[in-house]
Amino acid sequence: MANLRKTHPLLKIANDALVDLPTPSNISLWWNFGSLLGLCLISQIVTGLFLAMHYTSDIATAFSSVTHICRDVNYGWLIRNMHANGASFFFICIYLHIARGLYYGSYLYKETWNIGVMLLVLVMATAFVGYVLPWGQMSFWGATVITNLLSAVPYVGTDLVQWIWGGFSVDNATLNRFFTFHFLLPFMVLAATLVHLLFLHETGSNNPAGLNSDVDKISFHPYFSFKDLLGFAALMLSLVALALFLPYLLGDPDNFTPANPLDTPTHIKPEWYFLFAYAILRSIPNKLGGVLALLSAILVLARVPFLHTSKHRGLTFRPLTQALFWLLVADVMILTWIGGMPAEPPYIIVGQLASIAYFSIFLVLMPSAGYIENSMLEWECKG
Amino acid sequence: MMNITGRFGSFVPMLQSVKRVVPTAAKDLLPHTAPGCIRLAHTDLKVPDFTDYRRPEVIDPTKSSQDSSEGRRTFSYLVTGATTVIGVYAAKTVVTQFVSSMSASADVLAVSKIEVKLTDIPEGKNVTFKWRGKPLFVRHRTEKEIAAEESVNLSELRDPEHDKDRVQNPKWVVVLGVCTHLGCVPISNAGDFGGYYCPCHGSHYDASGRIRKGPAPLNLEVPFYEFTEDDVIIVG
User: Fold this and answer.
1) What pTM was estimated for this model as a whole?
2) Is A97 flagged in the annotation as binding?
3) Range of the domain at A347
4) Is B3 an 8 Å CB contact of chain A?
5) pLDDT for B89-117, tens place per residue?
6) Has residue A244 been placed in a domain?
7) Is residue A15 a part of any domain in this protein?
8) With the C-alpha atoms ordered B12, B17, B22, B23, is the resulting torsion angle positive or negative?
């Protein structure tokens, strides 16, 4: 008698993805971030749905509705803290997930990788519009600064910005539509995630050796189901600890002040996960150039599969490119730091150099190192 | 669980990486690398010795594990059971927190009680307050009204209730201003019975808020209230 788990039309979908899925035996903790991202998404959707029951998106009541949630709604403070800090954890996981992809050459699964780049853009868009909703000073001015970037588009820029705003500045119409987008986008993220997994399961996962692992696959359940469960416990512990003990550690004090269109804060900056891109944006003195650099900073990831020059898949056995990888990590941390600093000397020049380094590593240095390492593979027979 | 004997040699690499050793003729053909383990892929690798991690009772492969099996099983089941209990409690807590976030919030609960100063209401008049989003009628009855309502024959009433059971102090009637038919707000000092009249479908209530004529099935609801002083009540 055939096992129902493998034959039932619905159950076999779950079975083929979560139970009998052949998985490399040697995938490490860096492979946990995919499932952790799924957990983050579910957590954000659930907490977001419950917040949406009490939030109002009219500019007259938005700020106070968030106050109402935190003070009056039963466990509203906890749901709000989990949602706000959950966004940060989403980005921690996504950046580590991408770093794993870069280090181990997982980007050679091109369809999976490209959907992943789309997912990054969708998640960034969701977080951007979501941050506007509390309608604090930083919400308003962050929205104003970033939406104003669209005016850099030639010819149609001004009309485009006013179309996005629904008026002549960030105002009630903007807030209402941003709430709509913030509600809708996560479900698009969910759909894209399923397509991401669809393509991944065509090939199966990569592994740290970067070699074909067909000879040594083990079932997803119980090994990786329990390993993922452990990862979930670790993530939830960290998230809950942050939400309970240091809920505003990653936030901006200016967002406790209601939005005032007539009073600009001294230092406008986005949340930490956007700072590296913000630094790259500010490093170009030209407005359109800055916008293109900002977009390129994210979309360069789509070029990475075509910049792969090495005979090895991952960096495990490539010391030169490993060094460049960690240089990239350090560079992104520097850019993050610079993005949080005011646009003054010496931060300006540091930001510009770090931006040049960012693109150089991706476009020039890593491909070159690949070629060099390939030539280092050729042994000379000494006679 | 996928347990396979050594006879399924060709299929074994597709399945579990650790197999139970079954004494067969084929056993000797399969490489042994550590006690109790057979390796079928990467057979040139030495499987590490996991003795440090194993339970003391089962380290010696020559000794039967049956004696210690009950103790080992009990421990495993206890840990699993305790984890399950904690997990269920955690799940229940999370669900309770989310579900209760949909209940009345503190600001709603704060206006769930109102205080009414009765001396502000002249005799013979009915004042309407907003309580929990609904109209609340507070009526200062005259002696004539009190006597009339107390003498009503209960058998005449659709919803029999004596006036004494509907008031704490006969001078004051406190009822919800919501018609029990379909929820309209009755007009005070109107109708055929000296009480309230609902214009929606013609229900008549008396000065005690009892239904006397019309389609409404029940008397006007008397909410919970208490006198904190002779002339002050708190409703709710």
Assistant:
1) 0.83
2) yes
3) 269-377
4) no
5) 999 999 999 999 989 889 888 888 999 99
6) yes
7) no
8) positive
